[in-house]
Amino acid sequence: MDYDYNSTRRKLVLPEYGRNIQKMVNHIKTIEDRDERNKAARTVVSIMQNMVPHSKDPNELKHKLWDHLAIISDFDLDIDSPFDFPERDKFFAKPKPIPYHTNPIKFKHYGRSIELMIDKAVEMEAGEVKDRLIKLIANHMKRSHIAWNKSQVPDEVIFRDLKTLSNGKLEISNDLVLSEARQFVSKPRKKRDNRQQKKKS
């Protein structure tokens, strides 16, 4: 007697729908009448819909199910779909590699984001908005410096590093005053005195 084990069967493309759905889709391919194929396809999609979690956007779910139908059929299903079937080449295309910055970070305790913000500030026209951004950047640098080194830092050091990171392109106003260091240090929570709590109760 020959047994039909899953290990000997063809691997499912989308296992979450099970082998019965795969068989139904394979059967649709054999239906010669186009109207009957369309009816069968809609029926299969309805069954698939009952097998997946409901979505807040019904139209998005419907589109997803028809795409899955195309994938299960190996993109070889001649039917009138309410959506454009995904193309095989585009579906299996590898995503473009994400570009990474190869330039080393000058000051690790400030991070790459600060460098990007400084580059943006350099491009801006002189004015109040640019001055506010420079002050915001400098305060963020001071916060990062204190968090990294666990010690206070003079504002002059921040201004010097800011000038270095901007290659001398950012003008630091003489009247620029940064926030005090204590504003960047989180205060430890006070433990409640259980005895006082008992007295209140």
- What is the ordering of alpha helices and beta strands? HHHHHHHH
Alpha carbon gyration radius: 31 Å
Largest sheet: number of strands, sense, barrel closure? none
Number of discrete domains: 2
Poorly predicted regions are none
Q: Percent of residues in beta strands?
A: under 5%
The average pLDDT score comes to 83
Which structural class do the helices and strands define?
Answer: mainly alpha
**What shape does the CA trace take?**
rod-shaped
Q: Got a strand count?
A: 0
User: Helical percent range?
Assistant: 40-55%
How many angstroms separate the termini? 78 Å
Summarize the structure.
The chain has 201 residues and is an all-alpha fold. The protein has 2 domains: 10-91; 111-183, no CATH class.
Break the fold down into its secondary structure elements and pairings.
Layout: H1 18-30, H2 34-49, H3 58-72, H4 88-91, H5 111-123, H6 128-149, H7 155-165, H8 194-200
Helix pairs in contact: 1-2, 2-3, 5-6, 6-7
Question: What does it look like?
Answer:
By secondary structure, the chain is an all-alpha fold. The protein has 2 domains: about 80 residues; about 70 residues, no CATH class. The protein is rod-shaped. The mean pLDDT is about 85.
List keywords for this structure.
mainly alpha; 201 residues; 8 helices; 2 domains; single chain
